[in-house]
Each structure stands twice: as structure tokens, then as C-alpha cells.
Amino acid sequence: MLHIIVGDEAAKNLKAAFELDENLQGEILVLKDTLGIGDLLSTPEISHDSIRTSWWKTIVPHFDEEVSDESRLMAFIDNAIEQEEPVCFWLSPCVSDVCAYYWLLSYFKPHSGLLHTINIIGLPFLNEKGQLFYPINFSQVPPKEFIKTKRLLKEVTIAEYEVEIDEWKRLQEDNTWVRLYEGGKKIVSKPMTYFDTFIKNSVSDEMQKASKIVHESMKKITQTLSPAYIEYRLKQLLQQDVFQFNGLVEGPLKEIEVKNKGNDETSNDIVES
């Protein structure tokens, strides 16, 4: 069997599970991108990978990688067909996994019977201390617990393709920059400013490093999210003169200090490199 899983940390646990149960072993495609944020609207002329790379370069000015999930997926599917091996997508209750699942469906639909899932949404596991918990992604699942999930392997049915493939189309049509997980396989679209409240609640009346504000904001957010997006939104708020700050807006977070604006404080002189 071949495997698709989202994120390096989740893949690390899956690889460790291979060492405990050789029946699980197989090639792994690790999806690096997180589809819970950012532009999704690819076209016949512009590929998914190109759209995603362009978006990441928008929020991370020095982003020097190329998103390659789609190109690697196409080669992976060809390999699965050639080897006549089923493919298992590991699905957990987080926005990145559910969005990735919807994204995958259109690629696998022409190959009936190829795609399977192991879906742990709503299921309890035991942590390293033997305590019951409900993981929000596979990076939290101990390798020995992966083995117990084999019985959950299920082929994606024609009916599921017909109904659920439209969810990806809906997300593309919404094409907001923020998507939230709301239980089951439900994803809702939110405006790009959705997480600004978390940022504002992390800024105090005393100057503090912008990096600390990003860290405190991330602690308040229960969704799977890249800190790069919170950094981007914080800098957007600085450019909009929402906070008092010292430093260059385009500079590194560790060189920016931020606090709430007092009634007697004037606007910042925003300096961009």
C-alpha cells in the first residue's frame, strides 16, 4: 500500500509505525503545503502549484521554494497505477487534512478503487502516558497507535466522489484566504482578516517584540496554521497604523516592537525597505 499524509511531523510518526508493523510499509507522499490558508483558484493556464507558490511569495517576501504537491501527486498516482497498489490518505480532524482530501478527489476520481482513507475524525487514542485523548492531527498520534487504525481503511466510494468533490469547487469559488475546520468534514471560508482579533488581543499597552505577539497569537488559535500568516497579518496591521511600533515594517520580527496606541499618540512613520 502507498500512503499520502499532510506534513513532515505526521509523516515522521507514520514512518516510525512502519518499524513496528511491516504490513503498513509503503511509499509515502508527504504533502508540504497547507491548504487551510491562501489562494486556491487555479486555471487551465495556471497550475495549482504555480498559484500556491505565488501566494506564499506574497505573504513571505523571501520565500524561495516552489510548491510541488501537484506535480509530485501526479507522478505518485502514475506509480500507484503501474504497481497496482492502493493509496491510503490519512485523514485527521484538522483543516489542512480535510482540505487536502477534497483537493485529492478530482485527481483520483478517474481511477476508481485506487483511493482509500484512514479517517480518525472523532476517535480517541492513547498518548505516551496511556491517557485517553482526541488528536487534532497525526503529528499527535504515537506510532504504536497508528497500527490500531488499519481496521479503519476504507475505499472512497463513487457516491463520496460525486458529493464531496463539489466541496473543493465550493472552496475554490469562495477563494477566501482563511478556511476553518468545524467538525466532521465541514470546512467554512472566512475573510483574510479573521485572525486579526487574535493578534489584537495579544498586543498590550507596553512595547513587546513582534515575534512574541505572533507566538502569543498562535497559542490562542486552535486551528492548524502557519505562523507566517500571522506575521503577514501583523505587518498589514502595522502598515494600516493600527498599533504604535518601533522598527521597519519590512524588517525581521525580532527588530520590531509593538504596543497599543494611546489616545495622545500620533501615527507611526511607516518605513519600508
Structure description:
This protein is α/β, with parallel strands linked by helices and 273 residues long. Helix content is 39%, strand content 15%. The protein folds into two domains: 2-174, 3-Layer(aba) Sandwich (Rossmann fold), CATH 3.40.50; 196-259. The protein has helices at 8-20, 48-59, 69-83, 95-108, 143-148, 158-174, 196-200, 210-220, 227-239; strands at residues 2-6, 28-31, 87-91, 115-119, 125-126, 132-133, 154-155, 178-181, 187-190, 208-209, 244-246, 257-259. A five-stranded mixed beta sheet has the order 2-1-3-4-7, with helices on both faces. α4 crosses α6 and α8 (210-220) crosses α9 (227-239). The chain starts with a strand and ends in a 14-residue tail after the last strand.
User: Largest sheet, if any?
Assistant: 5 strands, mixed
- Provide the helix percentage: 25-40%
| Number of helical segments with 4 or more residues | 9
Largest beta sheet: strand ordering = 2-1-3-4-7
Number of domains: 2
Class from helix and strand fractions: alpha/beta
SSE blueprint and pairings:
Layout: E1 2-6, H1 8-20, E2 28-31, H2 48-59, H3 69-83, E3 87-91, H4 95-108, E4 115-119, E5 125-126, E6 132-133, H5 143-148, E7 154-155, H6 158-174, E8 178-181, E9 187-190, H7 196-200, E10 208-209, H8 210-220, H9 227-239, E11 244-246, E12 257-259
Parallel strand pairs: 1-2, 1-3, 3-4
Antiparallel strand pairs: 4-7, 5-6, 8-9, 10-12, 11-12
Helix pairs in contact: 4-6, 8-9
